[in-house]
Amino acid sequence: MANKPPPSIEEAFLQPVVSVIRRVEIYEYDGKTPWRKDLWNRLMDGSVSADHESDERRTFECTLDNHDAQLDPEAGNLWYDKVFKVIYGIELNQQAREPKVIIAEEYDSTGQALAIKGLLAKAGIKYVHYNPLVATYADVEEFDILISVSSDHTRKLTLLNEAFAKGKSILTLGVDATAAELPYIIAGGALDISEDNTGVRTFSKSSEEHDLSVGWNNWDVAPPHSYRKISTPVSGATVVGYTSDLTNGLSPGIVARAAFGGARWVHLQQAKFDEPIFPTEDDRTNCANFLGAAIRWLDTFVPQAKWETQLGEFVSDSIGFGDDYGDTIRINGRDYSKRCIKSKLAAATAFPKTAKVEDVIKTLALNAGISKFKLITTNKTLDIDKTYERDTTRWEIMKDLATANNYELFFDAFGFLTMTEMADPLLTPPTLELSIGPGGNLVKRGKKTSDSRLFNHVVVVGESSDSTVPPVYAEAKNENPNSPSNIEKLGDRVIVHSTPLVTKVTQAQELADSMLSVAALEEFEMTFDSILFPWIEPGEIVEMVEGAVDSWGPSRFLISSINFPLDLGPMSGVGKRITKVA
């Protein structure tokens, strides 16, 4: 997923009037040492393009002002040893505001929403909405923080998960949650729910300092208080408070987690908050202070004067005068894949079969001058002693290794060599939603269908890890009589994938089956122009909403290419959504 900003930033891009920030920063070869900062604000026009199917994921072209001849293209000045970082953003001038809070659920907990509002007011959080009828993300989009209170566990996990994934913060209050019911907070096997009606239940701080610990001490809760112990929080979650009684002993009682897009989640193992629950006024005050601290920690809105991000990190292909007099400089370039493509093996090079895929890729990249990496740990090995001949590009080897093991390899907008698993477009949530009408972001679009990539027979040919065994071979055929794209109805449409990096029949069959699941699909293509959102990446999902859906074809597309203009025009892209026609 892209480095998506908080919802408040996306809202700012949709305002009727926006002040755009744009510049080209110039660095030395290492991409770290600035070169002539005084010349960074000379951008006149240009664009950045990103293509999901190209080796060079990102390319750019721009025109820079050179009225004083400070940017002449010669060695020692603006030359091919320079790195260009394209920056895009908007002026915000935001003002401080109170968080927008909604209690979106009160399941089998009559009166607890009102009690929570009272405790929050006691802690200084006075504006809290209450609407347990909310059902969709559109119902809560205007709020920053969602609260769920339930006698046991939330019944609105789908809504909460979607809101969390889109940058909203969550506070859940319940006593019977498991890993299945709160997967962002709880891991491991939960214990049976226990009861202790003989005494009070105590909440105490963790020994570790945390913003959620500010302003409150321990507090007690009077019986009855049945609850299920949290045995293990998920990786990345923090225990900020413990709960204990005579039967359950000490266990995590307050767990918090910060995640992507600025979203945060807090869970409290407590579901009753009316006055009889607290033995003393101090207990009530301490709980109120905790809830106030939770809302303040969950409120990730920070007033900003501006927001900006990097659209790409490039090396140049050509630098020259943009006019007859040299008053402007024209630059064309591409991402760091150029370094890997230009860097070739000077001699035949062997890699042992025990070498890990990610280690080989990183070694090749380092030798091509790459220094920033986001490579997942695969623990997969080559499984065959492999020798590459001299004059083979390092990029060719790196891409073949990634593809043979079902990974994507590319340079992201910040110049990191990134390897990710190939996402299933049918299951991946959308990053960009295109809508029309008030507040919409869609400028125009077009759609068509094509069978240019429609195949019903996939053959994978590789090598065997045993030199005495013939090359591995596997095939997958669409012979499903209920599929309109089967061999009988469309004829035999064959695609052959041959790679020496597939060394086992099982590996070849898995790859053939995986390729057929995509190849035997009909392709829809959509072109669109929309408000420019600089965090969008090719390979992500765009979805048509708010009346923008046609009567035919799918509403979700995989973004195959996108163009970001550096003037004031809309961004444009091509979305290719493949969907089953069976």
Provide an overview of this structure:
By secondary structure, this protein is of the alpha+beta class. The protein folds into 4 domains: 7-94 and 306-335, Thrombin, subunit H; 101-298, Rossmann fold; 342-421, Phage tail protein beta-alpha-beta fold (3-Layer(bab) Sandwich); 432-579, no CATH class. The chain is 16% helix and 33% strand. The chain contains 10 helices and 31 strands. Strands 1, 2, 3, 4, 16, 17, 23, 24, 28, 29, 30 and 31 form a 12-stranded mixed beta sheet that branches. Helix 2 (112-122) packs across helix 5 and helix 7 (357-367) runs antiparallel to helix 8 (394-404). The radius of gyration is 28 Å and the shape is globular. The two termini are 29 Å apart. The model has no long low-confidence stretch (mean pLDDT 88).
Write the layout of secondary structure elements.
Blueprint: H1 7-13, E1 20-27, E2 43-51, E3 58-65, E4 83-91, E5 101-107, H2 112-122, E6 128-130, H3 137-140, E7 145-150, H4 157-165, E8 169-173, E9 186-187, E10 201-205, E11 219-221, E12 232-233, E13 238-245, E14 249-258, E15 264-268, H5 281-298, E16 306-321, E17 328-334, H6 337-342, E18 349-351, H7 357-367, E19 373-375, E20 386-388, H8 394-404, E21 407-411, E22 417-421, E23 432-434, E24 442-450, E25 457-461, E26 473-477, H9 487-490, E27 494-498, H10 505-519, E28 522-530, E29 541-544, E30 556-565, E31 571-579
